[in-house]
Amino acid sequence: MAASERHSSTLTTGASQFNSNPILGISYLVQHGHVNKGTPADIARFLHEHSDQLDKKMVGDYLGSACNAPVLQEYVNAMEFQGVAIDAAIRRFLGDLRLPDESQKIDRILEKFGERFAVTCASNAEAAFMLAFAVVLLQTDLHSPRVAEAVKMSKTQFVLITRDIDDAAFSEDYLGGIYDRIKETPLSLLV
């Protein structure tokens, strides 16, 4: 077997292992030279570069684990959101991962997203985190079949709830636009 075929084969095997057990998959990929030195930056780079081969739910679960916080930090640091509304940034962010089921993991991921969004968009990190969380909750409220139509959040309610998050004073037009876009096109929160 030629070296390039062997490299491709071990990459495919490593991605498959990651999709079953991310920790074992990363270990295998490091051993076979697909993730340079196994540093958080190397792992994050691999997750971005090979996202088409990785299970998005497993990527989210892996990044949301407390022990992988340095990888999550490097993962979000590789993303740029300048000049993009927060809902568009969330869509871009969720392009290669899905939020895990566990609330603590979701919180960790959205907190790091909020920090990065704030850095690239010159805004308040806490406000960005809280608004990102509100957008995910809005998504669930508007698009979950478990929420009755009569109790779904209105645009006015969303604007009232979010306009003064952490004294950020988001404009009603900005928040209303977020509401309209989420209502029209759901986020990809599930596989």
From TrEMBL:
Gene3D superfamilies: 1.10.220.20, Arf Nucleotide-binding Site Opener,domain 2 (1.10.1000.11). GO terms for molecular function: guanyl-nucleotide exchange factor activity. GO terms for biological process: regulation of ARF protein signal transduction. SUPFAM superfamilies: Sec7 domain. It comes from Lagenidium giganteum. This is SEC7 domain-containing protein. Residues 11-185 form the SEC7 domain. InterPro entries: Sec7_C_sf, Sec7_dom, Sec7_dom_sf. Pfam families: Sec7.
